[in-house]
Every structure is written in C-alpha cells, then in structure tokens.
Amino acid sequence: MQDQYFRALVVKQGPNGSFSREVSMRKLSDLPDHEVLVKVSHTALNYKDALSANGHAGVSKNYPHTPGIDASGYVVESQHAAFQPGDPVVVTGYDLGMNTPGGFAEYIRVPAAWLVPLPAGLTLREAALIGTAGFTAALSLNAMSRNGQRPEMGPILVTGATGGVGSMAIAILKKAGYTAWASTGKTEAHAWLQTIGAANILSREEVVPAKDRPLYPSAWAGAIDTVGGATLSAVIRSCMPKGNVAVCGLVDAPEFDLNVYPFILRGVNLLGIESAECPMSVRWQVWQRLGGAWKPENLDLMAVSCKWDEVTGWMDKILAGKVTGRVVLDL
Fold it and tell me: Do 305 and 186 touch, CB atoms closer than 8 A?
C-alpha cells in the first residue's frame, strides 16, 4: 500500500523565499513512519493552517508541507493495540499540520498517542467542525468551571465572537447553561450570533472604554478572550469579583497593559489555555463532554463546506478576518 497515491494540499517554498500552494498527488511512503495510518474523512480550516500555508516560521519550518491541525477519519493500518482498522478517530493539535503532514490530505500517519476515539455523540464531520477551535473553547470553560465559575454568577463575555474559537465558545456556553455575551466588530453577524446562542452582543467600543481607568464597573462574571491586547486588559478590568478570564488567543496583539487592581481588589483569575499539548486524560474527558452535555446545538449553522479548489481562497480569507464560524473540507 506504500505506493498508493492520494490527494493533498502541498505548500512549497520557492528559491526566492516565496511560497506556493497547490493540491497535488503524494505517496503513502511520503508520510512519516508513525504507528497509525488514518484515511481522513473531514478537516477544518484554522488560522494556524493559513499561517502554515504562507510560510510562517513560527508554525511550520520544513517544506514542502501539508497543513491541517484538525482531522477526523477511519484507521486503515495500526501498529498499536489500542486502535484497529475501521476505528473512527479524531486528531487535533500536537504537531499535526505544523511539521507533521496534516489534515488537508486524504491520508495522515500519526502516533497512536495523538488519537482520540470518536465520541459516541458525534459524527466525523461534527468532530472536525468542532476541531481545535471547539476543543480550545471547551478547555476554556473546563478550566473556568474547575476554578469555581458557575452559570448563576452571571454572563460570560466572549471576544472575537465570530471566529472559530469565539463562535464555538458561544454555542458551548449556551449548551452548558451559561448566559453568553458576544463581542464583535461585525454588525452584519449579529443575527447569526444570536442564532448560535448569544444572549447579548457588545461592540468593541462597549468592551474597551475610551477613558482609561485602573478598574471599570463590573460588567460580566467571566470571559473567554481570543483577542489579547487592549481588549484583554479591558475585559479583566470589567470582570466581576471572583470571576475567571480564560485567554486563548491573540488576534489583536500578544501584549497587554494591566495593573494589579483587578486581582487584589476583586480576586479576578486569569487562566491561560493551551490546547496542542493538552494531556490525554483531560483531552478525552473534554471530548466526551463535546459529544454529550456540551455538544453545541445548530452545528450545521456554524460552518460552511468547501471543495479542494476552494481551500487556498478560504485561507486568504481567514488571514484577512473575513471568515465567520468554521470552514470544513469533506474529503
């Protein structure tokens, strides 16, 4: 089977440092020598995939390369007793799609330690649609709830709400019994955000006041922030006492300016969320919730499907901030 060909999105580096992207044929023998061969059913587009496809050295260093940090599919071959041919599985994070050939291909070969058995409540398409974005959002809520966050404390603000992580956070919070507030600069997406579970929608100006103060009046009981920068600073300064702010993105900026008052006067907690190397024990538990009590409603409304010849166009759109929700490639 090693000589079998399959389709994959391949990013190549040119002699002048430029990068090109095209769907081409690869051999199974081109894949790394890991334990499990998976026939990919679905993959989803992430911001990190678009960076990888444009030669971002902080994501991928070795080219030619196939991006795709999410994949769902069936085991074809396995050298590990935990997985057998035909098993439906999900892979998110680790090194997939970074320097290990990723999900924008009909086959991937990965270590068995990266695989999660498909939760009973999810289809392969739903699992890919949720993907790293939904998993990161769920990890955020998991960390917040472990640190004492409860629905009765008040609303949870989600910044960057139309993005992959943000929109998934809105839907997951709603399903988990929380009141979700969305922050976005896209007025045309308000109706869509309400459909997926947002109880209130705030503009960026409502989240980040023009007048800078050490503390702002308490406005929300906690937050999931995907933006960073001045937004994260304002979100923390407006958080109610004992609330949790989970930070999992830097769409605006990686740095933020803040004093200690929210922490020593209100007891606000800042929680860092890292999903790629999440321990498998936690990863499995969170995926079980995503297939059960936290499974977002209206999943089909949260994604668009794309074809092979549309993938690179969608990558350009996500870098330009023109993607709402998720983009799924059905292989």
Answer: no
Q: Are 166 and 192 within 8 A, CB to CB?
A: no
Query: What sections of the chain are H helices per DSSP?
Result: 47-52, 124-146, 164-175, 190-196, 204-207, 229-237, 261-265, 280-290, 311-319
Write the DSSP assignment of 17-70 as a string of letters. S-EEEEEEEEEGGGS---SEEEEEEEEE--HHHHHHTTT-TTT--SSSB---SE
DSSP assigned state of 295: P
- pLDDT tens digit sequence for 265-300: 999 999 999 999 999 999 999 999 999 999 999 898
Quote the pTM value.
0.95
User: Cβ contacts of residue 175 below 8 Å, gap of 6+?
Assistant: 197, 293, 294, 295, 296, 297
Under a CB-based contact definition with an 8 Å cutoff, are residues 165 and 227 in contact? no
- The token pair that represents 66 in the structure block: 């196939």
Measured between alpha carbons, how far is 236 from 8 in angstroms, rounded to an integer?
43
Identify any residues that bridge with 225 across adjacent strands, giving them in sequence order.
247
Task: Tell me the pairing of strands 107-110 and 36-44.
Answer: antiparallel
Q: Rounded to whole angstroms, how far apart are CA atoms 236 and 240?
A: 9
The string of pLDDT tens digits covering residues 85-137 is 999 999 999 999 999 999 999 999 999 999 999 999 999 999 999 999 999 99
Q: What angle is formed at CA 240 by the lines to CA 238 and CA 244, rounded to 5 degrees?
A: 95
